[in-house]
Amino acid sequence: MNHTIDYIIIVIYLIGVAVLGILSGGKQKSAQDYFLGAKSVPWWAVCFSIVAAETSTLTFISIPGLAYITNMNFLQVTFGYLVGRIMIALFFLPAYYKGEMNTAYAFLQSRFGSKTRSFASIIFLFTRTAADGVRLFATAIPLKLMLDINYPLAILIIALVALAYTYIGGVRGVIWVDVIQMFIYLGGAIIAAVFLISSFIPGGFSEFLSIAASENKFEIFNLGFNLGLKDFFSQPYTLFGGIIGGAFLSMASHGTDQLIVQRLLTVKNLADSRKAIIGSGVIVVIQFAVFLIVGILLYAFYNTSDLASIGLMKADEIFPKFIIESLPPGVSGIIIAGLFAAALSTLAGSMSSLSSSTMLDLFKPITKINDDAKELFISRMFTVMWAILLVGSAVFFMNSSSAVVELALSIASFTYGGLLGTFMLGLFVKKAAQEDALAGFTAGIFIMIAVISLQLVAWTWFTLVGVLATLVVGKLLSLLSTERK
Fold first, then answer.
1. Residue 367 has what pLDDT?
2. Check: CATH 1.20.1730.10 for 4-400?
3. pTM
């Protein structure tokens, strides 16, 4: 891609995003305003924002690549995502709306004590910084190629755009920018699909259907009953693996991760929060279906499963290749802007959630600060600090030899099971005490490290294994402590 109009579109987009975030954020008077948007954000905006926050550059490029080399089995996981969100609406959100909850981890303090809240917050800070550092690096790849600059500079440019509107606009600015960005990246994918059907696949839509059907690309359900026990748990995209694994992963990522929970706490009441989380699950199913169909369309266009024959090393490169090499000037610029939209929504949300957890879970309880102006200033300084650390994390992972998608998924998987298990321990095991929760949480993390390192099960089962380990250890310890008493 070497067209001036594409560069102009992308530059205007990046500047426009920063300005929109700053203007839509309004004025904040306290840390509560800065991190919770004065609890005045409409539920539908939060719904779109959740979808944008969970959709990174990795999703935008890797899901079409997955469909290119396989089929639509991944959609089973998204059905699990929807089930998990329904569980969050039924069990988690009512607990968050009891009392004055300002972060996901405030619930753990009210249920177990301050040590559990601090431990969960620190685990979140570590995993979010590492995982989103990987995502920031992935976003810098196309910017580096476009502008012919080095990776550190490309990483810095993207981080500065996100920091500009997060620093000034707070979470309200982040959410309203997310609303726009969801439509930009989803629109970009739909535009690519339209061009593939109308201009690139000989024979158009009927030819696409014929090729896809002959290669069984439209297969959604894979019951997995023909697999042995070991293969059943090592195959990620079976019906049970997808729905059960997707549900537990979604409960962890959307019910216990401050990145999403922060948004759910910006609406005015529990009913709106429930509408936002369930609505986001419906949209995500549709969104992933679009991304998967784009991948199948790309297969119909290139008509080969031999990636090397078209100059590629892995399937993740297929969509960027098409965008840069095949689309006309202007259109490719819009779609690359969509790619940046997917990245900025996650990155800005990450900066806001990291600084909110640092301020509300750690700094404020320790210092007992009670001055709105000072809290707001310190909160913004934490936002800057985490922006710098995310840049540092991205530069660190720049030289990683692992596939970035696998790396990002693994980082979150190490801790999600223990985190969700601890929340479930608090909700469903009434006799569990703080010591039981901390021991269960720690056990869940260490067991997950062993399971992932030894590759005992597919990634869709990771969170469930961590949850079970945490619950079993926590429950047993609570029974022992009850007997001692």
1. 94
2. yes
3. 0.93
